[in-house]
Structures are given as structure tokens and as C-alpha cells.
């Protein structure tokens, strides 16, 4: 079922569900009350649930990359240790490095695929699993979302910061670091831009929450801000964020993709917009090549 066949009310309910405002049962219950042209809202809701196996674009055995899971210390984080998915391009390196930060449900197959895409493009990519200190991504998004919401958010952000530092200093890294993330990970990318100062060379948040305006003056990395047009919660933050960026003299550019919804880059659900996702990703790679080469 494509975007065009799903009622906007179902998309709005799915957004509430994705961000933890309602649980799966309530999402399906409310969706079931909607019927459009004989099509049940329950069928529309089911179509929005991710299909990760169908969404893989780069195999983990692709000869252009080498992928493995790595463990590393994370002082001040959830448990003091972290685990992530490290993917390098074939070859000796060193490589420019990119941290790929997951949504609000842990390191799911979509994010691992994004890390592989980055490696194919020539970057040493690390996708940390913020849930690794509590057993890792549990294999489904519902449990992952519940687990991530239960964590101390300050410690979880510290785990992302430690992951960035681990990657930047990795033997295969050329010492230049970028960060990108999606939804929660987009907000975490903005957080890293504030916290790392000139330790970060590029930041590309996808539809992520803006950082506190008071911290924006500490940003040194250029930002490429990727936004969905139909994303009222995130877009409401933009005027204050932009004002703070301008006051700080920060380097930034923002792209608002017409007709897209929050999550348009994620190719595992009908919110995916192929044209916008391809354009946003090509801009991401070009931006990283410009600032990390």
C-alpha cells in the first residue's frame, strides 16, 4: 500500500505511536475506527509497520565493505560500555569517519543498512546501539522503543558522545568526523554538534529535535539540516533554532523536502519518499566529502 492510499489521520496516529505517545494497541485501536472508500484504517496502519527484510539495499556480505560489531568503553554512559556496528570500505584506509545514529528504538536493520551505504560511499561508519548496555536491539521496534524510553536520556546521549570519540580516534579513521542521525538520532546529532565543538567536522540531522538555543553558540561544525515538509512538531522548533544559528554565525544550510513526512528517508515503511530520500542522501554524501576529505 503506497502513501497515496493511506489517510492522513493514520499517518498522524503513526507519528504518535513512533514517538511513544501511544502504544501499538492504542495505535491499532484508533486506526480501526477509520474507513476510507471501503479501505479499513487497520489495513492502512498495518501497511505502515516496518518491513526491514524488504528494505535492505546493501548486503552485509557485499565485497565493497567489511562489517563487524565492536565493543568499546563508554564512561558516564548507561553501563560504562557500548557496542556498535562498524563498517569500513574495502581497502587499507585511513578513511573519513561517520557516526550513524539510530531512531528512538535502537540499532534496527534500517540503520545498519545506512551504515553500509556510508561505507560503500567511502566512509568508516559506526552505528552505535544505545540499547547495548541493556541487552541490545531486541529484534522488534515496539520493545526497542520501550527499552530506549526507559533509559536515562543524559546517559544515553553520553553513550553517543563516547561513540563519536571512539570512532574519531579509531586506527582506521583519518581523524575527521561527521555525524548523521534520524528522528531521535537527528536530535542526538545536534547534541553532538553542540558538545563536540571543533571536534566534529560535519553534522547532518534528519528531522531531529533542535538543541537548546543557549548551546548553539558552541557549534563549530557546518550543518546540513534535512527536514520533512509535513512534520509540525520538528518544524515548530526551526524558527528559534535558525535565529540561534544566525546569532552564532554558524555555517548551515537547510533543505525542506516538499510533500514529505517525518521519516521519509526510512525505506522500510510507506512514509518513504524515494525521490526525496535519494536527493537527501546524495546531498549528505557530497557534504561529507566536502568537509571530511
Overview of this protein structure:
The protein has helices at residues 8-18, 24-31, 41-48, 52-55, 109-120, 141-150, 153-168, 184-196, 232-235, 238-248, 274-292, and strands at 35-36, 39-40, 65-73, 81-89, 95-101, 124-128, 173-182, 202-206, 223-230, 252-261. It has 293 residues and is of the alpha/beta class. It has two domains: 3-48, no CATH class; 52-292, Alpha/Beta hydrolase fold, catalytic domain (Rossmann fold, 3-Layer(aba) Sandwich), CATH 3.40.50.1820. The strands form two sheets. The chain has an eight-stranded mixed β-sheet, sandwiched between helices. Strands 1-2 form a two-stranded antiparallel ribbon. Helix 5 links the parallel strand 5 and strand 6. Helix 7 packs across helix 8 (184-196).
Furnish the topology, listing elements before pairings:
Blueprint: H1 8-18, H2 24-31, E1 35-36, E2 39-40, H3 41-48, H4 52-55, E3 65-73, E4 81-89, E5 95-101, H5 109-120, E6 124-128, H6 141-150, H7 153-168, E7 173-182, H8 184-196, E8 202-206, E9 223-230, H9 232-235, H10 238-248, E10 252-261, H11 274-292
Parallel strand pairs: 5-6, 5-7, 7-8, 8-9, 9-10
Antiparallel strand pairs: 1-2, 3-4, 4-6
Helix pairs in contact: 1-2, 2-3, 7-8
